[in-house]
Write a structure and sequence with these properties.
The complex is a heterodimer of chains A (250) and B (252). Chain A contains 6 helices and 11 strands. With 250 residues, chain A is α+β, with helices and mostly antiparallel strands. In chain A, strands 1, 2, 3, 4, 5, 6, 7, 8 and 11 form a 9-stranded antiparallel β-sheet that branches. Chain A starts with a helix and ends in a 10-residue tail after the last strand. Chain B is largely without helices or strands. A 5-stranded parallel β-sheet of chain B has the order 1-2-3-4-5, with no helix packed on it. The chains are: A alpha+beta (250), B little secondary structure (252).
Chain lengths: 250, 252
């Protein structure tokens, strides 16, 4: 990271220095104008500025987006309610600067990198109740990322544990289930739960790095290594009480 | 007394009138469907649906239409210098006579758009979809059009100095009477494109698929056809000078 920083700064300065007026209005900071961390629980979903995020759609319990919400967040009720009664609405960080950088053939990945937290590509969503109040957030590492990025997805859990460090966390390491195997000599399946110091919010953090049944490291038929045959992910959910964080799809 | 009455009347008129919104707000809300000749420089229309809106003659320099829906919108004679149309849907839009120097059209949908006599110099149009677009007489000097889909388009009479069309798809497009200098068509898919009466100098066609391309009456000089897929008969009615040909030899 310390080696990347001068490069990042140089690229930001380069983008800021682009002659076009379209670029002039942007602060070339690495932080997006609005991200999942700007969402305040207990406030209406209209708090999210529709012009500062993109791809507003129904979520699929941490999976890729489904139905696009043409009217934006006000259309949240179109998303089917989960067993908790909350509606999951997916969005992505604004990509305007990323696309200007692509058009300029600059190193766009160093700028904002799409929807990411702690440099991990993620899928983010808000959980909205029937009264249009945001009751929770959900962050899941993006399975559509490259193999290299997916391999380190499990390490996002460390950053998130630190972010919620003031919450008293209880973490359990789960043993391998039938058919699950380590990747090399590493097997990680950890679930942490916590409650905020004021007792108004609950958190569930699950991370895993393992091979599921059928994800063999080696293909005996072709004598080739099976690249990318592993599960590496981190899933965070924070909800207001009395709601409980939901479980990932089995 | 009269002054007080006038002041009161003025206050009543102001309070009765609807809240005064600017043209940007009116366009975003859909209350307004045209803004001919407006000054909308640096305005932000990100992700907005402005289909069919008439911006003829407007000053939109530096404005942002990132991800906007602009199907059938009219930008004739407008100033869109440096305007951001990245990812915008501009299907069937009209930019006749527009000044679009340095504008961004990265991955924009421009199928059927009309850029007749538009100034598109130094635009960034990579990955744009421009099937069936009209660019007759357009200025494409310095435009970056890598990987653009420009099939069945009409670029006759266009100026293409240092235009970059590497890896593009320009099959069956009409380049009649274009002037191309220092252009680049490396690895372009350009089957059955028409370059009749064109003047082409110092241009790179390396590895291009040029099956059935027509150069009738054209002048081609100092250009490179190395590894291009084209038969010698394609140049039967072409004035050829000092080109590197597909089989590796250089012409005198």
């Amino acid at each position: 990271m310390p080696r990347l920083r001068p490069l990042t700064i140089a690229l930001c300065m380069g983008l800021a220095g682009m002659a076009s007026p379209a670029n002039a209005q942007f602060d070339p900071a690495l932080v997006p104008v609005y991200s999942i961390w700007n969402v305040t629980l207990g406030r209406p979903v209209s708090q999210i500025p529709a012009m500062e995020v993109v791809e507003i759609s129904c979520g699929t319990n941490g999976g890729p987006p489904s139905v696009k919400l043409a009217a934006g967040f006000s259309d949240f009720a179109r998303c089917p309610a989960e067993p908790s009664g909350l509606h999951e609405v997916y969005f992505e960080n604004d990509d305007e600067i990323d696309y200007l950088a692509r058009a300029q053939e600059a190193e766009y990945k160093v700028l904002q990198g799409g929807t990411s937290i702690y440099a991990h590509p993620v899928m983010v969503s808000v959980l909205v109740d029937d009264d249009a109040i945001v009751r929770g957030i959900r962050i899941v590492t993006d399975e559509r990322a490259s193999t290299r990025e997916r391999r380190v997805a499990v390490t996002l859990a460390r950053n998130l544990k630190g972010r919620y460090g003031s919450w008293k966390q209880t973490c359990d390491d789960l043993p391998p289930r039938a058919g699950e195997n380590p990747v090399g000599n590493q097997f990680i399946h950890e679930i942490c739960t916590a409650e905020s110091p004021d007792g108004t919010e609950r958190m569930r953090l699950e991370s895993s790095f393992l091979r599921k049944k059928g994800q063999d490291a080696f293909n005996t038929d072709t004598q080739q290594l099976n690249v990318g045959y592993f599960q590496s992910q981190t899933r965070l959910e924070v909800v207001q009480t009395p709601y409980e964080p939901s479980l990932p799809p089995s | 007394m009269k002054m007080i009455a006038f002041a009161a009347l003025t206050a009543m008129v102001w309070s009765a009138a609807p809240a005064m919104a600017g043209p940007v707000e009116d366009l975003l809300s859909g209350a307004r469907k045209e803004c001919v000749g407006c000054d909308l420089s640096d305005a932000r229309f990100k992700s907005a649906d402005l289909s069919g809106v008439d911006f003829s003659g407007a000053n939109l320099s530096g404005a942002t239409f990132h991800r906007a829906v602009l199907s059938g919108a009219i930008f004739d004679d407008a100033d869109v210098t440096g305007t951001n149309f990245n990812l915008a849907n501009l299907g069937g839009a009209s930019f006749v006579g527009a000044t679009a120097t340095g504008a961004y059209f990265y991955e924009a949908q421009l199928s059927g758009a009309d850029f007749t006599d538009a100034d598109l110099s130094n635009t960034r149009m990579q990955h744009a979809r421009m099937t069936g677009a009209t660019l007759v007489g357009a200025n494409l000097d310095g435009a970056v059009m890598k990987e653009v889909r420009l099939n069945n388009a009409d670029l006759s009479g266009a100026s293409m100095l240092r235009t970059n069309l590497n890896d593009s798809s320009i099959g069956r497009s009409n380049f009649t009477a274009v002037r191309i200098d220092n252009g680049s068509f490396s690895n372009a898919k350009m089957a059955r494109a028409i370059f009749d009466d064109a003047v082409i100098t110092l241009t790179d066609f390396y590895g291009a698929d040029m099956d059935g391309v027509s150069f009738v009456g054209a002048t081609v000089a100092g250009s490179r056809f190395t590894r291009a897929r084209i038969s010698d008969s394609a140049f039967a009615q072409t004035k050829m000078l000092h080109n590197f040909m597909q089989d590796g030899h250089q012409q005198n």
